[in-house]
Design a protein that fits this description.
- The chain has about 350 residues and is an alpha+beta fold.
- It contains 9 helices and 13 strands.
- It has a 7-stranded antiparallel sheet, sandwiched between helices. It has a two-stranded antiparallel sheet with strand order 4-5.
- Strand 1 and strand 2 form a beta hairpin.
- The longest helix is centred in the last third of the chain and has 29 residues.
Amino acid sequence: MSQRNSLLSFTAALLFLLSWFGGLVVGELSKDFSQCLDFFYNKTPPRGFNYTAYQPICQQYNNTYRFASLYHRQHRAPLFSAYILSPADGKRPKIPWMYEPQLAFAGASPDMRPFNYTVDQNVFESQAVNQDYTNSGFTRGHLNPSSHQKTKDDRKATFTLTNIVPQKEGSNTGTWNTLEKNVLDRFKAFCNGSMYVITGVMPYKSDAHWIKNRVSVPEYMWSAYCCPSYKSNITKDMKKFFPTFAAVGRNDPSSGEEIVPVNEKAKPTVRGYDVKQMPLLELEVILNQRLNAPVSLFDGKCSKLQTSPLILVLVLLFTLIIFILCVILIFRVKISRT
């Protein structure tokens, strides 16, 4: 399937989300992720989502694309953010929260900007603002966390509210934070190349939840990674985590336990915000059921042949033997002609 057809097939599942996210929106930014496909494995966005119903954003800061998000303006929240993980080379930056100018003004600069003290009405209507989260009972939950971005500018770029969803404190600073650290540790220990991460949300199946009647609240967080090249001598107990793995986290202690069970022995501060880690296929099955469409997060399921050093040595030896035989054959032919 061509890249264009792959993008067009990114169309079915989110129609189910319209009860949560509302009607179709055609944004000014882009019709697809064509300007920032590098943040997706094999330059292919996830299949099965109806990206035409949402606003693809190639997140730009200081004239450089930093990651990608799929955003819905009417409900002022991203559905997912996609990025390439790279361990931070410094601390969490102290930076004002930012907004996406092109969501508010046609023809505006694509660079994200910090909020002014007085928020323009166009900005207020087109996306979430700081006041939405003030005294809301929810924290600003990063889909692309700053700890997964190397440079200071990359980390700063994650502080746009188009990368943020309402997340409960017990999840954000507790169980979900632990998951982010676990993924980072796996990358450092076992990945030989890039790790592609997609982190998103699942809405409530019915009775949409809001903060201040403006920003949609997710029932669950989810995340998946693709590490196509990893160490061949990986330990047996870690093999299940590669090349892909995924997780779903609770964002509502009162939700049912059919997707993520509750550990009643957990500390009170994180009880009900459990995170269940799972194979990629299990997450895709859950998304398929919730969205009623065949979601596929990574092209080819992130498959890449892992060649062991022994096989490489055998291939080199075989090649050397063929080369020597060819040389001998040529030498004999020359002798026979003399």
